[in-house]
Amino acid sequence: MNAQQPEVADGDTLPGATRAHSAGSATRATQRRPRRRTNPLAIAALILAALLSPVAALFGHIALGQIARSHGRERGAIPAWIAVGLGYLWLVGLLIIVGAVIVALDGGVLPWP
């Protein structure tokens, strides 16, 4: 790098962007790329999944839809998918527990034929 070019971290400037100075020489522009934000619903879904909530699956699906519609402006698909998987796991576990409680309270006999 020469003394006229400011130091920038990798990925901070747009590739191939140039800016003309008054002397007519072209240097790299310091235009910054917009930072991709993490979808807050994906984080909320991951927190709900950690708290053993089946609602995490619903929040994860909604977050994945928002991320897909953002066209790359949002990230967080991996936490959303983890939340979806854990949410369904907790839902199945909850259904098994509720079924076991129903059977136990009915004297060990299933309520349907």
Radius of gyration (Å): 26 Å
What spatial form do the alpha-carbon principal axes imply? rod-shaped
Helix content range of the residues, please?
40-55%
Main sheet: strands, sense, barrel: 2 strands, antiparallel
Give a description of the structure.
The relative contact order is 0.13. With 113 residues, the chain is mainly alpha-helical. The protein has a two-stranded antiparallel ribbon with strand order 1-2. The protein has a two-stranded parallel ribbon with strand order 3-4. The model has no long low-confidence stretch (mean pLDDT 82). The protein has 3 helices and 4 strands; from the N terminus they run E-E-E-H-H-E-H.
